Amino acid sequence: MKNIIAATLTTLLIGFGLYEVNLDSASDFERWALKYGKNYYGDEKIYRQTIYYQNKQMIDEHNKRTDATYLMAQNQFMTITNEEFIRLYLNTKSSEQLNQQDQVRRNNIYKSPESINKENKRDSVDWRGLVKVKNQGSCPSSYAISATSLTEAEYAALKGISVTLSAQQIMDCHYMKDGCDPNFDRNTVWEALGYMMQHGLYNEYQYPYTGKDQRCQIKTDGPWKIKNRSWSASMKAYSLQSHLYFNHPYSVEVDGTKWQFYGSGIFSDCSSATSTTNYYALVVGYDKSENWFVQASFGTTWGESGYIRLAPGNTCGILNTVNHVDLND
């Protein structure tokens, strides 16, 4: 108890600038813990410190490779294993649940108004910065954040309206108190967009994000709605590129299993033909080499200021399931 009180007091003094940490003598682990506001005690501290140094060694060894197309970096995930990263931050559903989701969406496959062919593709499209990068915290809420970010992007690009919508409202009010359950089969972008069509959302200021399971905090519908939701399966790369040029960012389902320590560069360390999608993100463009720009929800200290660049093609399953929205006129 005395150690906990002392650590808490030290943290408060640091916050008020009344306690100076000697960073020159601090260990790498202590520097990291101070930067990310992490406190561990007793056996837990020993365990987490061990994982930290194991991850640090793996990162250092990866970054020495001459054949690596991307660099790893230390971030907020340094004291968890990859198994914990998958369990805590990704959406893990069974193959039966995924098949059921596909059956529900089959009648809503996206039909583009444009004639999609390779001639429609532009050299590059970059919607990075159109909507702010979110941080889901320790809740696998990427489905709600991807859905709200998709809608925010449509409002920004089509109507010039900048708004941050409440992902927490979807988590709390769609299916009560299951918003952070990684196995709940309703926690998908498709279901989130359906809720938005029917009930509308409040903005994040009115309904703040907590990243926790809680009861619905509202009794009336929100003012921000969408007109329609649609999706496309097994899209061709040039089709998605053309869609990004004409129709702005899209929500995608990807395999984020190995994204834990992505730092910078072109990522391709997952199967291009993967059927395992466990993370929802926002594809926001591509460069002249056809690498994808993808906006994640791990905050701006992760990756390239919150973004990851994926190699061309169906890297991490980015083309497997693509979601789109239409706004009300």
Keywords, separated by commas or semicolons:
single chain; 329 residues; alpha+beta; Cathepsin B, Chain A; nine-stranded mixed beta sheet; 9 strands; disordered N terminus
Describe this structure in words.
The chain has 329 residues and is α+β, with helices and mostly antiparallel strands. It folds into two domains: 2-72, no CATH class; 82-326, Alpha-Beta Complex (Cathepsin B, Chain A). Helix content is 34%, strand content 13%. The chain contains nine helices and nine strands. Strands 1, 2, 3, 4, 5, 6, 7, 8 and 9 form a nine-stranded mixed β-sheet that branches. Helix 6 (142-159) packs across helix 7 (167-173).
Write the layout of secondary structure elements.
Layout: H1 2-15, H2 28-36, H3 42-63, E1 70-72, H4 82-89, H5 95-105, E2 125-126, H6 142-159, H7 167-173, H8 189-199, E3 228-233, H9 237-247, E4 250-254, E5 262-267, E6 279-286, E7 292-295, E8 307-310, E9 321-326
Parallel strand pairs: 5-8
Antiparallel strand pairs: 1-5, 2-6, 3-9, 4-6, 4-9, 6-7, 7-8
Pfam families: Inhibitor_I29 (PF08246), Peptidase_C1 (PF00112)
Domain Cathepsin propeptide inhibitor: 29-85
Keywords: Signal, Zymogen
